[in-house]
Amino acid sequence: MRQPKILLVDDVDYSRQLLRNNIMSLAGTKLLKTRHFNFFNAGTANEANILFRLHQPDVVFLDIELPDHSGLELLAQFKQQKPECCIVMISGASTLENVTQSIKMGAATFIVKPFSGDKILAAMRLMEKQFYGQLTQDPI
Amino acid sequence: MTGCKHILIAEDDSFLLSLLELQCSSLNMQTCCVENGEQLITEALSYQYDIILTDIQMPLCDGIQAMQILRRLGYDRPIFAMSADRLNCEGFDCILQKPVDIDLLARLCEQTPQQPKVQLEINSELTSLFYQNLAQLSQDFTTALQQEDFMTMQQICHKIKGGAASFGHMHLSQLADRMQQRLVTESPESSILQESRQFLLILQQSGAGNETA
Known about the structure:
The structure holds two protein chains of two kinds. By secondary structure, chain A is α/β, with parallel strands linked by helices. Chain A has one domain: 3-Layer(aba) Sandwich (Rossmann fold). Chain B has eight helices and five strands; from the N terminus they run βαβαβαββααααα.
């Protein structure tokens, strides 16, 4: 079975690293089914756009506040290019407007910063549900 | 699993909220109280709670909408509703009649399993990256303050708020949050410059504390 591809989009280096480390750490436990992932990193919306087109990731962790564009704009573009992609929005400010808009635009879930192990696990479990659901319907 | 269960209570009537808080505390539960649906969603997404107990009619976003948004976001932990009216709504684990029968609530909470807590893993390389970033933000904040560039100062506060709490700097994160809000609402003539200088000092000390560690 192929490894899920994850694109991490955040302009802060250590935030991307923190996400990657903790996803890998969870993958080493019985809390997740998946043992290995392929990661790609983007610090800007432009980089994210290029990497998305190139690698067609299964999951995107997408910060709303990016230096060049809003993460919400990217969310719309990514869902248009690959509707089945599981997109996890990240924000330091979780207003009701942000959350409902993200849902309407097709985000799978929403992580409110600061990060915690429980938040990352919840997002990854949701990702697995979607990813393996797709595989069951359309085996690769 | 040891320790008490964590319950998030959402109720816009302050008297009822205080009463429920007291009752849940007497059941040896750790409580957090919010007064509207928006706060309920934000708090629930922290994934710190074993149980959510929510009123239906609340400002900004009612209990049903909040539950539906949380379920849509994959939130799969128990959510109990409390309502004075008869309610038939999918998505809640239980609907309690108001006034809440505390013995019934106690039984339900007892039957609800405590959620396992997953610690955030932070190694020395990551910590080092964080402090490098903090030092850079500190320099950027100094420059922005000299130029009275409030927009950049806001953006820096926003970044610090999101990152610092994950690395144990809760106080700095809260200060950055407050500072960001002040920078949005206050005019440059007010005491904001003085407060910004004080914030910068704390920011520099937070970074310096690590260098000497």
